[in-house]
Amino acid sequence: MKTKSIYPFLFLVILFTSSCIEHEVIPPPVNTVDLNCYFVGFVNGTQVEFTQNVQGYGSVDVNVEDINPSPTPSKKTYGSKIKSFYYPQAVTVNYGTLEWDAAANSQPTVSMFNDYHQDATLSPISFSDDGLNGIEIEYIDNNGITWLSRETDPGQEATFNILSQASDNTGDYSLFECNFTCKVWRFNAQTSQEESLDITNAKFTSWFKR
Q1: Are 96 and 113 in contact, with CB atoms under 8 Å apart?
Q2: Rounded to an integer, what distance in angstroms lies between the CA atom of residue 182 and that of residue 127?
Q3: How high does pLDDT run on average in the chain?
């Protein structure tokens, strides 16, 4: 009596089944820039510290633009603010001004952006009101009161160090560290007097966004 082998049949079944299996498509890795922030300094002798993801603190960009028709140059002041979702206390570094032709590019190009910040690395930066021609420090205290640095104060100093420059699908960034010592001021409407705070040995680590 003749016996038929079942192996050829099983081979065909396995071949057909494997051809019907959908292979998982693994997306390519997403390049993301690690946007960390940290601030530590002494405000009137008391240490103040903000750390990312602690007590709701994180960094946001607060850029200011002045767009003009060509040939008048457009201007951009870059700002980085470390703030909390839960507390009013915050600190901002404003630094400007990058000039470019908005008729040629709606925004400064990546190379303009990178070169502009690299040029400031490790060089003393002058203080400037509104950050127009240098650095401005804005400090918000526990009561939500805003204090601002002034370009005319003597003895203040600041330096930048660009740690890295990178891009991802959310934008182009300059990650930096800024060290500074300065006074910040506010006008007290109740006393009609100007008041100041000393910020010393401050280190502000964050990022600017193009």
Answers
A1: no
A2: 9
A3: 89
